[in-house]
Design goal:
Structural class of chain A: mainly alpha
Number of strands of chain A: 0
Oligomer: homodimer
Strand content of chain A: under 5%
Largest interface: A-B, 49 and 52 residues
Distance between the termini of chain A: 68 Å
Number of helices of chain A: 9
Order of helices and strands of chain A: HHHHHHHHH
Radius of gyration of chain A: 21 Å
DNA sequence: CTCCTGATGTCAGAAACTGACATGGATTTA
DNA sequence: TAAATCCATGTCAGTTTCTGACATCAGGAG
């Protein structure tokens, strides 16, 4: 027989989410969480670097999945297209693993607590950095890679927000493409007329969609 | 005669930066900072919500400045152009107020300390939200506004990084336009050639200006 | 059986933060 | 001018987060 109940980490995560919802984030101490999971405060901090981290265990996997998606995108795809398709795939997978109820509960918590937003933001920043690296692997130049990665994060954020606040049930992954299109439209708006952005005569202008 | 030395807040900020540089961020306690400023720990927390905040007093003014810049951009400017020009102006002003040495010292600290990065990120997120609001005031639709704001933040980040890590002395503001151009190029790359992008939802495309 | 490993517990303590109340020049008011 | 009161700061006690050091003890390896 096992010496300890299995999945201490998972128990801590679940206990934490329950308690945060029951009493609120700041009225829940780490000791509360640990006790509900049948463990001690010290053990909590062996699994999670701090109190916030207990809500962000999925970040690593998401990052890995997206990086793989970027690396595996068709060679002819541009950086932004590669990122967007990776995000789309990751979103689809994310929807399979967790139902929207969980996502909403977690989202509400994060939105209401700046310290949790901060953590969320740094996770996304780490994700952006990882994407930048994956794009560089594809031969994309540094600044372009960073910008495409950040743009991808912006798309993800907007798509996610649309999904989570939507009244009618819809897919998260389905938000990605239209959001990408909107971003492209915004970027194109007011763009200098010719390719080289200075004085050169308007040679072969890019086909202006629409 | 004044009862207390003037500018307690400023003294705290300066003492903090000095000590962070001398001993490092985590080997400096709030009490250390307060003492060097001739105050007590309790008073520190009356001026700053927490230890990190002492490094971010300029954020409010930057936000206000950029929002004004967006609001004051020429009416015919598209959202991204409006944001970029506001950022450019704010950068120019920022360069006047603080020298690059200060910027580098602060940047080094933030880069090396995740908790400070988190704070930096949430300030930028707040800035993005404010920009989104300013764009909405200009009649830009919600998703487009959010995306343009996030894109602006991406530009700012990349421009700032280039500026701060540059060997040759150059202007921060001067980094903005080329970075915007790069972003536009990235966004345009691989864009669907014709107006309907691959049978995706009937997006309401805006008429392309210019 | 003995040794060792590794997850957990126990304990003490530093540091971040908060609420309540005190202090005493400065400023306003009677 | 004397009194009232204002308010930036100090003092103090307390909670919570997080860390280091060491103890415990079932189970697997030899």
């Amino acid at each position: 027989m096992a010496r300890w109940e299995p999945d201490a980490r998972g128990r801590l995560e679940q206990a934490a989410l329950e308690l945060f919802r029951e009493r609120g984030y700041d009225r829940t101490t780490v000791e509360d969480i640990a006790r509900r999971a049948g463990l001690t405060e010290r053990t909590f901090f062996r699994y999670f670097a701090d109190k916030r981290e207990v809500l962000f265990s999925g970040a690593k996997e998401l990052e890995q999945r997206i990086v793989e998606g970027v690396a595996g995108a068709p060679v002819q795809a541009g950086p932004l297209a590669a990122v967007a398709s990776a995000i789309e795939a990751a979103c689809a997978h994310l929807e399979e693993r967790r139902d929207i109820e969980y996502a909403r509960a977690r989202y509400d918590l994060i939105v209401r607590h700046p310290e949790l937003q901060e953590r969320e933001l740094i996770k996304l920043a780490a994700l952006a950095a990882a994407i930048t690296g994956a794009l560089r692997e594809r031969g994309v130049e540094e600044a372009a890679a960073a910008l495409a990665a950040e743009a991808g994060m912006a798309i993800f954020r907007v798509a996610f927000e649309r999904w989570i606040t939507a009244k009618k049930p819809q897919s998260l992954a389905a938000q990605v493409r239209p959001t990408l299109a909107t971003l492209r439209a915004v970027a194109a708006q007011g763009e200098p007329a010719s390719e080289s952005e200075r004085g050169s005569p308007p040679g072969k202008r890019k086909p202006n969609r629409r």
